[in-house]
Design a protein that fits this description.
The protein is an alpha+beta fold. It has a single domain, classed as Beta-Lactamase. The chain is built from four helices and five strands. It has a five-stranded antiparallel β-sheet with strand order 2-1-5-4-3, sandwiched between helices. The longest helix has 26 residues.
Length: 139
């Protein structure tokens, strides 16, 4: 966790920019808070989400956050949820729970989903680790 809202938003903005820069096949990286509201986003050439109405995108984001929350209810029994992948006719959707909420990533279909998800998961784990260490230093 980051100490102030401004620092947190800047860190999440940097995180989104970094993730989208790691692979040219990533269309969008969207950080959602625990209520499904968008915190930060980066789009490269996504032609789908920007064309959705405001109410459609809000519904999509809330649904992805709720899906993640419901899946995490089984963490004690099945182990922690690392990510979820959905393959659609037009793209992949990746959903990653992390300390600030949910990271929602879309990509082209011509990627290796397991490779991309592991790469993003590594970046998120590093982000969470750095955030926790920042709190310890400021305490």
């Amino acid at each position: 966790m980051i100490t102030s809202n401004l620092e947190r938003n800047l860190a999440i903005s940097s995180l989104c920019k970094y993730i989208i820069s790691t692979n040219e096949k990533i269309r969008s990286v969207i950080s959602l808070n625990k209520n499904g509201r968008m915190i930060e986003s980066e789009f490269s050439y996504d032609q789908i989400i920007p064309k959705m109405s405001k109410s459609e995108t809000e519904m999509l984001y809330m649904q992805r956050t709720l899906q993640t929350s419901l899946s995490m209810e089984f963490d004690n029994l099945l182990g922690p949820l690392n990510y979820m992948i959905f393959e659609r006719e037009t793209m992949f959707e990746f959903i990653f729970p992390f300390s600030e909420g949910v990271l929602f990533v879309t990509s082209d279909l011509d990627i290796i989903p397991r490779y991309l998800s592991k790469k993003i998961l590594f970046i998120l784990n590093d982000f969470d680790w750095r955030s926790k260490n920042l709190i310890c230093k400021n305490a």
